[in-house]
Every structure is written in C-alpha cells, then in structure tokens.
C-alpha cells in the first residue's frame, strides 16, 4: 500500500509542479512534459506543432476529381447540376461525403435532419471545437462549385493538416449542412437555421410540405432520417463551437476582376423572402372582354415591376430584389389566369432599408389587388433574417493566413447568404471567398480554377490550425 500512496503523492506533486511551471512560463517545456509522462504513466500535454505551415500542400488532383464526381449525382445533364434535398441523388451524394470523412479519419455523426458532422478530436476535447463546412445541395440547373468547395475543401484542409503532422488542440469539425438552398420546402439554410436554435422552425417543419404535397417528415424518412418527429435534438447551444469558418466561391466578379486570390468576408447581407398569391375569376381568353377581366397573371406582372421600382428607389446599389418564381394557373394560352403565385427575394446589407422595401411591396400588392379586382389571398414573409457580422478574431486569423501564404486578399461583404449567416447565431463566424469565373453562380457555367480552389483550401487549413490552438 505504502509504495502506491507515495507514487500517488509523487505524481500529484509533479503534476502541481508542472502546472506552476507552465503558468509561469508560457513556452512549453517538452522535457518537463516527457518526465511528467514517464512518472504519471499517461499523456499530460500534446506537444505543440513544431513543423512549418509554409509547405501546406493541397492534393488538388484528388479534390478536383471529387468535385467532378460529386457533380454526377444530379437530376439534370452535365454541365448543369440539380441536387434537391432528400432526392435519390442527394442521398447518394451524402453517402459520398460520409465516406470521404471516414477515409480522412473523422468520426462521423448525423443529426435528425441530416446535418453531417465529421470530427477530428483534438488534444483537449473538452474545449469547444472549431468548425467549418457548407452545403452540397444544388438548385435546379446550377453548377458544381457552390457549397461543394466548402465541404470537399474542408475535408481536404483536414487532410492537409494531417499530412503535415499537425495536432489540433481544439477538435476540428467539418459540417455538411442540410439544404442551404430553399428549392424543395421554400426554407433557406434549413439545416443551419435549425441547428442554430430556431425553435420556430421545428414547429413550422411539422406542417411543411413540398410542391408535391409530400411532408417534410415523410421526405426525410424516405431519405433514411426516420427519427424526425422531435427535432429538438438538432438544436445546438450558443458556445457549442469556438469558431465557425466557411470556404465558398465568391458568386460575384470582384476577386476575379481585381486578380485577388482571397476574399475575407466581413459581413453577410440580410435576406428576406416573400410568397404572394392573387386570385381572380379566370375565364375564356377569347370570350371575356378586357373591361370584364380580373386577371391574376397581370396582377403578378404588375407586382413584379413594383418590386423592381421599390428596390431601385432605395437609392443604394446594395439593395437587390428578384422575382424568381412566377406561376400562373391554369397555365393555358386560352385561359385567363385565375391564380398567380410569386416568390420574391429581397436582400440588403442594411436591414432597415430592406424592411422598408418589403413594406412598400406589401402596399403595392394591396393597391394592385384593389385596382384589378383580384383577391390578395396571401402575402407571407417566409423569412426576414438580419445580417451577420464576421468575428474580428476570425477575420484576423484569415488575414494572417493569407499573409503567411503570400496570397493577395481583400475584405469584402457577402451579398449571397450562406449557412454562416445562421452559424453566427451560435458561434463566432468568418468566411473565406475564392474567385469564380466571371462571378457566375447558380448556373451551369459556374467555375473556379483549381489553383484558386487550392489557395482557398490552404487559407482554410491555416486558419483552422490557428483557431484550433487559440
Ligand atoms: C444562396 O444560395 C443564395 O441564394 O444566396
Ligand atoms: Mn447557392
Ligand atoms: Mn452556397
């Protein structure tokens, strides 16, 4: 018994001594640690990474192959990509991502809506992890880089760090978010919005259906997510991550035009979406004379023009508005539209200004319905999200990564929304942009040069390394 007790005392003595030494001296003393480990019989501290980040090497051939392979999981022919939430192709693509995460040695978990997490456990797993990621769903007839670069690129960033022999202190986690695009259920950033704690959304999803009247719950079940009656398990608490950073193509022309390698995002514009329905009497397109008509299609057309007018009236180049969906019922050349449906997106970096535009659109919808004798049967603001600011410390970490890697960069805002907009609700957030051809996105011509993708992955890897040791 006595030798055991004295060994215990010796261990404790050495342990306290060690703590004292390390608090006095910030520089890690490897010799002391080794001695400590020899005496105590377990690992006391992970030695800090001694290698050099100057040789961060991205396997761009494999990464490009993965981008190309993933694009084949599509419901429309190449070069277009269409990958809609919980479709067969989406399920196959998800399997592809989980497989890659496994090959990179990450421990994989999925939540009840299919957000996928791949974790590289750090030497201090009790600390909040650093996370990165994006989405792989693709709107109809879009391209193969939107979101994908931020998922496959994140897995490759982990590979880069592993090849270098780097050991993270905080765990590093790659997240593939479910349905950033609103294509199927009309809800943008469904996975990250939910994960960031939207209890309102857990309720809304109970009654949400797609265009075919398939409920969210049934669609999720068909994709293998059978446990989705109670979505509260998806919600994460503020502080679950010490940082979140997303790599993405710019989706605009600035970086390419200015020949700048990297965009460091400082803020994400505030998006809002609105659904509008008009109803009229319809009727025969030949027999009903013009003064007798109340044409729901013309009401929609007039409202679309009013959207443009109110957006331009804001006087700011940062206010944008789009009528991306306009449907007429019954949709026959010889029938006056009896119903029309519009979906309108309004975005701005100034939330107040954007909200004023929404109010003006509402007033126009009311006056158009009155003037044309049609019923405004719905004017629903689906989401009206505030903008998000990047965290200073993450901006600085990305900037210094660019400097160390000798890459030109500029600070910029994101006019597109991203899962980062919602991750900012629970975690300090940042984003890294890479140039894309002519700024094209959401169309098949979307392209990012392999060198630009590789640069983005290197900046991401180095930023993750910095954040994981802070
Ligand atoms: C994201 O896809 C967006 O529309 O901004
Ligand atoms: Mn997109
Ligand atoms: Mn995207």
UniProtKB/TrEMBL annotation:
Q: Which UniProt keywords apply?
A: Hydrolase, Manganese, Metal-binding, Purine metabolism, Signal
Range of residues in the leader sequence: 1-23
SUPFAM superfamilies of this UniProt entry?
A: Bacterial exopeptidase dimerisation domain (SSF55031), Zn-dependent exopeptidases (SSF53187)
Q: Which residues form a coiled coil?
A: none
Query: Can you state the subunit structure given in the record?
Result: Homodimer.
UniProt xrefs under NCBIfam families: hydantase
* This protein's name: Ureidoglycolate hydrolase
Biological source species: Rehmannia glutinosa
């Amino acid at each position: 018994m006595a030798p055991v007790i004295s060994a215990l005392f010796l261990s404790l003595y050495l342990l306290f001594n060690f703590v004292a030494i390390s608090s006095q001296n910030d520089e890690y003393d490897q010799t002391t640690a080794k001695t400590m480990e020899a005496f105590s019989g377990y690992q006391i501290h992970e030695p800090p990474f001694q290698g050099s980040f100057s040789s961060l090497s991205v396997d761009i051939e494999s990464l490009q192959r993965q981008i190309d392979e993933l694009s084949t999981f599509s419901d429309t022919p190449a070069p277009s990509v269409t990958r809609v939430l919980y479709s067969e192709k989406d399920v196959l693509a998800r399997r592809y991502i989980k497989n890659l995460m496994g090959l990179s040695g990450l421990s994989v978990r999925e939540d009840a809506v299919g957000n996928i997490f791949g974790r590289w456990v750090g030497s201090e797993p009790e600390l909040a992890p650093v996370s990165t990621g994006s989405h792989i769903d693709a709107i109809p007839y879009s391209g193969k880089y939107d979101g994908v670069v931020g998922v496959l690129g994140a897995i490759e960033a982990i590979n880069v760090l592993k090849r270098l022999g780097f050991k993270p202190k905080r765990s590093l986690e790659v997240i593939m978010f479910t349905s950033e695009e609103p294509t199927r259920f009309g809800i943008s950033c469904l996975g990250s919005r939910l994960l960031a704690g939207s209890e309102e959304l857990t309720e809304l999803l109970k009654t949400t259906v797609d265009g075919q009247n398939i409920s969210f719950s049934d669609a999720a079940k068909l994709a293998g997510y059978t446990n989705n009656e109670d979505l509260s398990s998806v919600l994460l608490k503020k502080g679950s991550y010490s940082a979140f950073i997303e790599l993405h193509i710019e989706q605009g022309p600035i970086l390419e035009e200015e020949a700048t390698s990297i965009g460091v995002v400082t803020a994400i514009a505030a998006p809002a979406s609105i659904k509008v329905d008009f109803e009229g009497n319809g009727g025969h397109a030949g027999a009903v004379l013009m003064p007798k008509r109340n044409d729901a299609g013309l009401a929609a057309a007039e409202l679309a023009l009013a959207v443009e007018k109110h957006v331009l009236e804001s006087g700011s180049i940062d206010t944008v508005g789009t009528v991306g969906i306009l449907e007429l019922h019954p949709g026959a050349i010889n029938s006056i539209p009896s119903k029309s449906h519009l979906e309108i997106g309004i975005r701005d970096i100034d939330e107040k200004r954007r909200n004023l535009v929404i109010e003006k659109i509402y007033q126009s919808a009311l006056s158009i319905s009155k003037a044309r004798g049609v019923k405004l049967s719905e004017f629903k603001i689906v989401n009206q999200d505030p903008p998000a600011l990047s965290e200073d410390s993450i901006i600085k970490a990305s900037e210094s990564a660019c400097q160390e890697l000798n890459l030109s960069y500029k600070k910029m805002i994101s006019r597109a929304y991203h899962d980062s907009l919602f991750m900012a609700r629970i975690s300090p957030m940042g984003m890294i942009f890479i140039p894309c051809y002519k700024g094209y996105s959401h169309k098949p011509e979307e392209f990012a040069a392999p060198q630009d993708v590789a640069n983005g992955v290197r900046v991401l890897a180095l930023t993750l390394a910095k954040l994981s040791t802070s």
